[in-house]
Amino acid sequence: MSSFFFKRACWLVLCAVISLTAAAQLPGVPKTTPEPTTSPVTDPLGRDTPNGTIYGFLHAAQAGNYSVAAQYLQMTNAKRAAQGEELAKKLKSVMDRAFSGNLRLISNLPEGSPQEGSSPNQQRIGALSAGDVDADLDLVRVPDSGGVKIWLISSDTLAKVPDLYDRLAVHQVEAHLPDFLVQYEFLGIAIWQWLAILLAIPISAALGWLTVRLLGLYQKLRRHPPISRPDAWNAISNPLWLVFATIYDGGLVRQIGLPLLPRHHYQEVIGVVFIIAWAWLLSRIVQQIARQVRERAIRAGRTGTGSLLLLGERVLKAIISIAAIFAILNSLGVNMTTALAGLGIGGIAIAFAAQKTLENLFGGVSLLGDEVIRVGDICRFGDKTGTVEDISLRSTRIRTPERIELSIPNGSLATMNIENLSRRDKILFNTKLSLRYETSADQLRYVLAQIRRLLYEHPKVETDGARIRFIGYDNSALNLEVFCYTLTRDGAEFLAIQEDLLLRIMDIVEASGTTFAFPSRVLYLGRDRGLDQEKTAAVSYQVQQWRESSQLPFPDYAPSEISGFSNSLPYPEPDSALRSRK
User: Fold this and answer.
1) Which of 26-40, 227-241, 366-380, 439-453 has the lowest mean pLDDT?
2) What would the pLDDT profile of 118-134 be if each residue is shown by its tens digit?
3) For 63, which of 141, 183, 354, 361 is 20 to 30 Å away at the CA?
4) How far, in Å, CA of 1 to CA of 103, rounded?
5) Can you tell me the distance from the alpha carbon of 89 to that of 74, in angstroms, rounded to the nearest whole number?
6) How far apart are the first and last CA of the chain?
């Protein structure tokens, strides 16, 4: 990746130089002093940053271009011409065999990164150690011939390179191998090292498989194993094998002694595999834990909690995947500050664009968390009634009595008044009876008394609160209201109880000698005797007495009169059953 950017930078600089030269040589164009530009001048070799200097040196040295590699060393031009290539070759060998440090931590900023005990123009990259000679691999920032500040490997480090090179131990394996395996290289790696890398793969895979088998046998022999279910162990065994195999492979390849740059690239690759293995393992662990907890919740009747756990499992898996992606990018040297800033801006854009989707998502979470409804419940949603068939992240599906599947977004459902009919402890029976106006007062009393007795006697009717009352006069009927609770939660059973009550009420009305009223108009033909003269005269005399004594009760009775006859009417009536009990 760094070589790609290096080539792009060189190409851009070359194009800029050619364009400026051509423009200066065009006829008719006056040769004036160019105006200063705001774009910074870059170094063609990428030595503007500590990262560019180290990687540029390693790439040039690995390609065998030691004349270019010498340009990254802090030396005079004369000394570079005489000793630069030889010193670059020795430094490359020392860095391959004796370097300790992390190339991913090298700053990619022109000014470097602040380090304690170092000047602003100095960067400590790592340590070089061979035999009894130790040295720091330092970079210094100096101006080049054009005045541009660049980073070079310090002269103090270069002074110790010959001693370090002389004390490098010969690899013991190379002494026992044929010369062609040691001398010939491919991509900077000796042939024998390539063979060792390929051989390490099946060995590490076998060691990982053996470790997983031993762990499985150990947890089976334990009295209280942490993972008691065989399917759960089988689910995590494959990612666990990959984790151990990656660890073993990294340890084996470390003993091969790869050159620094290939070793760095190998560590990046093995690091990516290791992160993927861990993300896979954590996802399987989350899946198995959520599955066990969800099964317990469903067995306990908390289906809403089970659905919420399913949602939580998916969210955790998504978080693990995102964290793994960022960890991979960080291991590959990507600037995470820019990535996180982009993620934040993208998250805001997504939040605005997917506002309804997020509303439905959080609505589903609230429904599942509060357990307002469950799968299988019969509910009334506004003017619709149906059975809940599924509660997903976006919507809830309802099966209506017409066998139509109704889908309601969770965002709308969270703000809707929901009547859960399946959670009724009893069902209300409330109906009105309309009797004909020809019904006498005693017939009405009989109907009221017998229906009231029916409500008290019925074993499926709750006695407390059961009532029937004469509630008023309609245009063509006398209205009675029946109010009681039936002792059932099942809708089909309620219909049977309601049918039984209505039939028994019909028998009572028929036995009373009256009938139910229906919208009608009755016309009576007969001789009209007019008004009762005696009663009319008596009433007129009474009203005249009120006028003469100034006691006309309009708009109301006088307060003294009200206090005189207040609560004087006998209730219940003297022949009432309630009065006789007193």
Assistant:
1) 26-40
2) 788 888 888 888 777 88
3) 141
4) 14
5) 15
6) 103
Collect all residues with Cβ–Cβ distance below 8 Å to 470 and sequence separation of at least 6. 444, 448, 478, 479, 480
- 496-540 pLDDT, tens digit each: 999 999 999 999 999 999 999 887 676 666 666 777 788 888 888
Q: Is the pTM of this model over 0.85?
A: no
Q: Contact at 8 Å (CB) between 373 and 417?
A: no
Q: In 3-state terms, what secondary structure has residue 71?
A: helix
Residue of 166 and 141 predicted with greater confidence: 141
* Cα–Cα distance measured from residue 74 to residue 155, given in angstroms and rounded to the nearest whole number: 5
Residue-wise DSSP of 458-472: -TTB-STT-EEEEEE
- CA atoms of 413 and 382, how far apart (whole Å): 10
Q: Which residue has the tokens 């060691």?
A: 207
Distances (CA, A) of 572 to 340, 456, 576, 579: 82, 20, 6, 6
Inter-residue contact 231 to 216 (CB < 8 Å): no
* Beta bridge partner(s), residue 408: 396
Tell me the per-residue pLDDT of 5-22, one tens digit each, with 9 for 90 and over: 334 334 333 343 333 333
Angle of CA points 459, 460, 465, to nearest 5°: 95
Q: Look at the block and give the residue holding tokens 């007969």.
A: 526
Q: Are 472 and 479 in contact (CB under 8 A)?
A: yes
What are the b/e assignments for 360-390, b being 16+ CB within 10 Å? bbebbbebbeeebbbeebbbebeeeebbbee
Sketch out the chain's domains with CATH numbers.
2-11+38-169 (3.10.450), 186-353 (no CATH), 360-416 (2.30.30.60), 427-512 (3.30.70.100)
Strands ordered across the beta sheet of 133-143: 99-100, 122-130, 133-143, 149-153
Question: Which residues 6+ apart lie within 8 Å of 253 measured at CB?
Answer: 196, 197, 200, 266, 270
Q: Which residues contact 509 (CB under 8 A, 6 or more apart)?
A: 433, 435, 447, 515, 516
Task: Give the up-direction half-sphere exposure of residue 327: CA atoms within 13 A in the CB hemisphere.
Answer: 17
Structure tokens at 491: 């809708």
Q: Which residue has the tokens 């399917």?
A: 231
Cα–Cα distance between 232 and 157 in angstroms, integer?
A: 55
Tell me: pLDDT of 447 over 80.
yes
Distance between CA 209 and CA 203 in Å, rounded? Answer: 10
Angle 50-62/2-25 helices, nearest 10 degrees? 100
